[in-house]
User: Fold this.
Amino acid sequence: MKKFIYLSLIVFFSLFFTSAVFAQCEGNVYLTSLTWQTANSVQGFSSTELDYCAGLYYDPALSGNLTEGYGTANAIIGQGYTEGYADVVPAALDFGYAAPVNNLSYTTNGAHYVIAYYQVYVAYWNDYYWYDPWNLGFGEAGGGNDGYYAPDYSGYWSYVSYWTSSQQYVGSSSHTITYTGQTQCLPGQQFTSTEQPCSNPNECQNNQQFTSTGQLCPNYVPPPEPPEQPYVTVHVFDQPLLPRDAMGYAKGPSTGALTRTCISGTSSPAGQQVTLQILNVSEYTAGHVEAYHIGPKPVGKFSKSTGVTDGNGCFATTYYPSPFSGKYKIKSTISGFSNETDLWVVVDNLQKIPDTGVNYRLVGGGPEDCNAPSCYENNNKAMNNKYAKAHPADHYVVPESIPGLVKIANDYKAQFYPNGIQPSQMVAYNDASLWFGGKFDLPVRGEKADWREGAGNYYPHVEHRLGHNVDMRVDPNIPNQFEEELINICVRNNFGINDERGGDAPHLHLDWNNPNRRTGRGRVSLLQNGIDQNAAEFYGISLTPSSFVTNAGETILDRQITQQEFESWFQQLSNAKAQGQNVFLQEVKTFEKQLFASQEYVARQRTDEQFVEDVFTSHLFRAPTDEELPYWRSYLSDIGGTQQIDPIDPESPKTRTTIPLSQIQRRQIFLNNFENLPDFVNLI
Assistant:
């Protein structure tokens, strides 16, 4: 008979604020265990579930098992551990056993937990402060890369440490049934009601557990329960993460995501060796076709990927996301025991520019991006294009920009083609952003795009990350005499312009919600100390150790830096930044000079012009303009002269000699002067 009797335990947490402006919110945790019989099997279920209030600050967790009882002993026949998410996903386990024994007891057990978040950002009128509602522990950090700058619970502004978590035990639940099988025999009975032979007592020998008919042997002694196996958990907080941009790591005020891994079920949790890895999930490419890219896809970096667990069996580090969106996995191995968790790096809620535009067409994409006739270009032809091969769907934008794009096309048609417009005359929208945003790398080396992360590989398409930018083709569809008025139409519809009509692919780079922007061709050059003050691509930049290490390392060395290099260099610069801006600036300069003087860079045999380009990209995160490049190339060529060599013995009558400066020496002098420019110093 199927039984649905269960035990449900409700635990209440109450959050009371000191001010009357806060409403009371009680969080409830529901603990459930069920066991029932289905035909000739036994089923078990256990769950930890949170309501809305509890889900604001906790995630549910559950460790459960299904046991078979033999008198006073029990044998575990199924076990597991799982975690849920807030009030959305309960932590639940299902068990099944296909060989139950007559008249034995079967019990589903649950040990229920919540994963508590220590620090909670709470709204107070028009301001915020940090509060620990469950008194689980609170502390403030010293700032820098490891803290948020925010008012604390007393109203004082300071750096507040990241969220940390702790697995809190709530309670247990269990439910037991006695299995009533279909082959039970009474004493002396030869056959069962289903005409199956009853067991022969002589079958039970050598501590045999079952007879041939599935009956429990009367003298069977179950083995002792195995000891609890260590279990590893991994948490990445503040998901989903935005992909890293050209200047740093984007997720609000933070510079990365707190990652925490713990081991349980061991008598000695402290001091266990930890190794963390980031794995790419190739089926979630976020708009990139990996076969048309060079090298392995960057997966991000940890500030520290190895270490040992603390007294609670946990290890914490910071994950810096890849500039490429997609799905990744973080794998934690602690003393030989491993587990993985999913990690999403995405720009949320991007939408594709509709295929069905009446007065515009989409160009540059493949069949995954546009199948409508208004796309105009033959998809087979498009897929033979190296750009479309690497990124077959590239017309994704923030939803708020779509009405403006539609209206630009309608306004253009109404002004210049009121009696009808042909597809070849329409406004044509080319590259925007990929499905999940992130770095949109163009094939700059032959037929394949390049996975490298450095800012030097960001050009072109440095801004096509967040769904705010769209390239509008102007050749051959827009007559020259209409182009300036088309720009005015774009501005009236809340789009700024970077004019790129002078390149190999003439187009206007549209910048949504920035109508005052007018950069690119026709921009007035304003050189001050050799730097064009009107050339800045980025605003409000603050250089971080993590962004500097990745950009400088990969630009100068022309390759992806390793996790070990990142950890070493990141720690070096982070320690300097903690000592103040001046110390950080000096360490950054030293780091740059060391990379440019390295044998690896010398072996690249860069010309003076290429060296200037490398300096701009590694220091200012952009390429030099047409006005800046000849200025600094000339400046470098003017660094000549000789160095004076003293005799080994000062008393020697031998006169001093001079030798020409080497290329490395000339370039080091160049770096000394370039790194004193306000445009670079202000980034630090």
Remarks:
- The chain has 13 helices and 34 strands.
- The CA atoms of residues 50 and 252 lie 28 Å apart.
- The two ends are 73 Å apart (CA to CA).
